[in-house]
Design a protein that fits this description.
five-stranded antiparallel β-sheet
Length: 346
């Protein structure tokens, strides 16, 4: 009798033990499944938002929207420390902002014929872009929309009721020589190609025009403040102005706030004009080299009051990155890595 009771007890214990183990294993499987789903969800979220390297206080101080091209997608930065993916297609070629409307973007996508399909995108509803026309590739290869010098993509610009798309890069001009025009007044699909060189300027005259633009007015290279003249060469830097003022052409640009100057010095001219690009305060202090070659920054910088946003190649990230200079020391800070184009909407 006692043996039967012990046997029944052992069988019961074995049954309950197996039940507990089964339940535990089932709960563990559910737990792992939940972790997997969370991981997938987090990965998806990470793909839709990018971390900005600046802090929220620094981003808020900009008081503007920054739209940029990252991995051929359009992203938007406001005053947060993350960027939101607006296009989510991965094949954007270039984009332009409408200066008359902060809520409208235009972007282009390469089609099978190596032409550009143009779309309009509203920020309030980015999931429904509208096709508005195409630009035909007259050359049949990518040299029509990409420079043969630094591989820069043709830019788009909105002017009034027209969307202008650069095209047809020519070595002799070192620039795109044509522009495709899309009429935005009625969002029509007809596109006219207009030659920007309609005045029949010769190549020699163009070289003279470039040189004159580089030289500028030497007197403007000095800033006057309350009767005092500031010579921007009175600084210690890799390049000193006095080595170039008398003989070399200089291109310069004053910040909208009037407290900083960007300038470049023509140190070499072979196929293109080359020379360092620098920034300095108008009192001559804190001069720094932004890049060793000014030609890399023709279209890749914008001012926001006294703050400078610009693109520079980074060896660390192995690509072009967006930087900002927003201090008296003119020291740059990383905003976003690996971008192809950016625009500021103020």
């Amino acid at each position: 009798m006692i043996k039967h009771i012990l046997l029944i007890t052992l069988l019961c214990l074995s049954f309950f033990y197996n039940c507990i183990m089964y339940t535990g294993n089932y709960s563990g499987a559910n737990h792992n499944s939940t972790i997997a789903q969370d991981t997938i969800s987090n990965t998806r979220d990470a793909g839709e938002r990018l971390r900005i390297h600046l802090g929220q206080e620094e981003m808020s101080a900009l008081n503007c929207l920054i739209i940029f091209l990252h991995d051929d997608d359009i992203w938007l930065i406001d005053d947060d420390t993350t960027a939101v993916n607006l296009s989510n297609t991965g094949n954007i070629f270039s984009f332009a902002c409408d200066p008359d409307s902060t809520g409208i973007l235009f972007y282009s996508i390469l089609n099978e014929a190596q032409g550009l399909d143009i779309f309009v995108l509203k920020l309030e509803n980015p999931d429904e872009p509208e096709y508005i026309g195409s630009v035909i590739n007259e050359a049949g290869d990518m040299s029509y929309f990409v420079t043969s010098t630094y591989g820069e993509r043709a830019q788009m610009e909105v002017t009034g009721n027209e969307l202008l798309v650069e095209c047809d890069f020519v070595w002799g001009w070192f620039d795109f020589t044509d522009v495709a025009v899309i009429d935005l007044s009625m969002i029509k699909e007809e596109i006219d190609t207009t030659d920007v060189c309609e005045n029949n300027i010769t190549e020699e005259e163009n070289d003279i025009q470039i040189t004159n633009e580089l030289v500028g007015d030497i007197s403007e290279l000095f800033c006057t403040n309350q009767g005092r003249r500031y010579q921007l060469s009175n600084t210690q830097s890799i390049v000193r102005w006095e080595d170039h003022l008398k003989s070399e052409p200089i291109r310069f640009e004053l910040s909208p706030a009037g407290n900083k100057v960007i300038f470049s010095i023509l140190a070499d001219f072979c196929d293109l004009a080359h020379g360092p690009l620098l920034i300095v305060n108008v009192d001559g202090s804190n001069q720094h080299v932004l890049d060793s070659d000014m030609m890399l920054h023709n279209l890749n910088r914008e001012w926001v009051d006294d703050k400078l946003l610009y693109i520079r190649y980074s060896q660390e990230y192995e690509g072009d990155c967006l930087y900002i200079i927003n201090n008296y020391e003119n020291m740059s800070k990383l905003v976003m890595n690996n971008i192809q184009q950016f625009r500021v909407i103020q």
